[in-house]
Amino acid sequence: MEPRIDMFGNEIATRFSKRFANSAQVIHRSPLPKAVQELVSLRVSQINGCGFCVDMHTKDAAAAGETQIRINLVAAWREATVFTEDERAALALAEEGTRLADAHGGVSDETWSQVRKHYDDDQLVALVSLVALVNAANRLNVIVRNPAGSYEAGMFAAMLD
To answer: What is the pTM of this model?
Structure first.
């Protein structure tokens, strides 16, 4: 599979990607736990069918020390016993925030209440921003059909400096 356009070789795409990466850096440096960041990024990408981002987030999560069992079970987190209550709340928010068209009310009050129990304001802002940012990245990659499989863990770290 070939991408429809080279988003890594186009000047406008490169300028946009640097700004996009700067937004990601704000979240990466936030007090939101790194494990939650990776789990949420992976789940949003799974929902959106973004192979490129699923590839990236599984490899980055593994490189950051996430266990293979947890990575494998993100898609079935409700039925899995390997996630904490705070991770479950974040994954519920990620799903409802991603499936806005499916849930006409957006994120439910119940889910919001759960994330408020586990995260402070800074963490919650980072979590909401992460869901929005990953959804945007998924859409870019799905639209241009960036293929999965060639990502190497940490490949975009230089863009974050």
So the answer is: 0.91
